């Protein structure tokens, strides 16, 4: 399996609009028609990614790049 998504990079990413009491972060996104929405957008750390597949995966590898992270593993 392979998953990847972007990291939060100050000055490059859409800024975080708010954080809730559970630690979830939200961004505001605007459509071409002008409609604006608040979307849930978390930026997991390496430990969180590994924990998310613990007990269900083998050969777990997390690669951190400046703008992206990648989680790769073998299904058990």
Total domain count: 1
Order of helices and strands: EEEEHEE
Provide a count of the helices: 1
Largest sheet: spatial strand order: 1-6-5
Mean pLDDT: 96
Largest sheet: 3 strands, antiparallel
Strand segment count: 6
Radius of gyration equals: 15 Å
Low-confidence stretches: none
| Strand residues, percent | 35-45%
Q: How would the global form be characterised?
A: elongated
Q: What is the helical fraction, as a range of percent?
A: 10-25%
Distance between the termini: 11 Å
Based on helices, strands and strand pairing, what is the structural class?
A: mainly beta
Structural write-up:
The protein is mainly beta and 76 residues long. The chain has one domain (2-75). It is 11% helix and 45% strand. It has one helix and six strands. A three-stranded antiparallel β-sheet has the order 1-6-5, with helices on one face. A three-stranded antiparallel β-sheet has the order 2-3-4, with no helix packed on it. A hairpin with a 3-residue loop joins β5 and β6 (68-75). The longest helix is centred in the middle third of the chain and has 8 residues, at 46-53.
């Amino acid at each position: 399996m392979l998953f990847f998504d972007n990291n939060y990079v100050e000055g490059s990413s859409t800024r975080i609009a708010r954080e809730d009491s559970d630690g979830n972060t939200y961004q505001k996104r605007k459509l071409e028609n002008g409609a604006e929405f608040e979307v849930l957008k978390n930026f997991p750390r390496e430990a969180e990614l590994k924990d998310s597949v613990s007990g269900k995966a083998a050969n777990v590898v997390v690669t951190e790049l400046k703008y992206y992270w990648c989680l790769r593993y073998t299904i058990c």
